[in-house]
Amino acid sequence: MRSMLSSAALISQPHKAVSGSDNEAIAMSGGAVLVASAFGNGLNYAFGIFLARMLGVDDFGLYALALTVFNMVSLTVLFGMDIGVVKFVSHHLEESQPTKARDTIVAALILTLGSGLAAAISLALLAGPIAVGLYKKPDLVLCLFIFSAAIPLATVTNVLISALQAHQMVRFTILIKYMWEPIGKFLLAGCLLWAGFNLVGVLLAVVLVFAISTAIAVAALYRLTARLSEGPSMLGLQEAKTLIAYCLPLTIANIFGVVAPRADILILGYWTKSEEVGVYLAAFQTAAILSLVLGAFVTGAAPILSRAWGQHGLARMQASYQTVSRLSIIVSLPIFCGLILFAKDILGIFGTEFIAGVPALIVLALGQIFNNATGAANSVLLMSGHSRLVMMNTVVMGIVLLAATAASIPLWGIIGAAFAASGTFIVINVIRVIQVWRLHRVQPYTWDLAKPLAAAAAASTIVSALRSLDVLDQVPALWILLSLLYLAGLLLLKINQQDRLMLQSLLSRMTLGLGRT
Predict the structure, then answer these.
(1) Who contacts 334 (Cβ-Cβ below 8 Å, separation ≥6)?
(2) Whole-angstrom Cα distance, residue 403 to residue 400?
(3) Domain assignment of residue 151, yes or no
(4) How many CA atoms lie within 13 A of 468 on its CB side?
(5) If pLDDT is split at 50, 70 and 90, which confidence band does 18 have?
(6) Is residue 505 part of a domain?
(7) What domain range includes position 56?
(8) CA-based angle 6:8:11, to the nearest 5?
(9) Does residue 10 fall inside a structural domain?
């Protein structure tokens, strides 16, 4: 099996010369996703502010808790099928086997639809015991019951989008996740709130949005696969067996990888009032803005990493790995600095009660920027076939995070949750980088990363001084100034030609917005 080849064997094999095409593809497709995610998640963030102000901190806390349970269940019952689809469909397409690619997609859809329906029924039946027996919050029952209807829709849509991503059709990810869903939630929830349905209306709007997302993804993928392959769609037993064998370790990883990162909100809901859950969610969502950057570039890099491994192209894999790290750091740093400098102002938008989450926001942002700095380490492990190792990593991370969260929240509340989450995140990412190095002798860093770090430090110092001297106190203007000073620093420090070209490609895509990828 390819997944068992050593990196020494890889190096000894002939491979395609590394060109700038992969770097450009990552920059361009990642830039498109980043623009779209900035738009879509910006709307999602605004939607959170809208709900916090319309519902109040108590109902917003209930929404946060119900949403966390929904996300936890819907992502767990994917069983890693979304990752498996990207890996195997990309591989089949690289080998000019579109029918096998389609059969793999059909197998994944059947499996996830069945697991999604079973999970939906289970959550609906257990809504009462969870809400009343565990959390002592009777108003949570209806929230969980309504959200259960969206579980099979969410699971199927995730697999469909992964299949489109494997075909390098990023525009459908943009259309569904970053355009329709945030716009749809805003419009439908706003209408139902205006009609007086309150929190129930918001939940119904979310379910309807997921249903329409599924319909769009089904139509897009059907048209694509019908054009690329011959014969009727069918369940390919061999493809199903291969997919299940690869995803089985990811099933265990999913349980820990999905539940553990949400343990902070789940345990907060048990130990504290709904208001504190709402405050923590506002801080968590704000810090999670940074994760969009890495996610965007990994979306473009994952199929390339899979194909590089399939071609025994270790040099190509390392180049893509380092490209993701550099671009992620360059783009993330001005956002990170702004979150730290303007934390109080940002959380104040949700309402004065949410300013209490400033320390948690700073700690969570530190964990996120460290994650971005590790680049695509986890994707390298997955695309090179090491799903069992990913499983072990995730299980260890889950156990440590659950223990740290359970120990710290009763003592320190939301700041304890933030320290537990960020600390565990940092440790597991260090482990992933070390594992990739030991397996393949590739790592995500170059000395050129020192230049954006220096530019960010200088820009932050200048902006902080201007604000302390009351020269300029408008946060939007200060953030724009921070970004401009950062870019000027990059130019003065003379980032290398390759990074300059990639950044130009990225800025070009961002300027074009949602053009064809």
Answers:
(1) 456, 459, 479, 482, 483, 486
(2) 5
(3) yes
(4) 7
(5) very low
(6) yes
(7) 22-512
(8) 115
(9) no
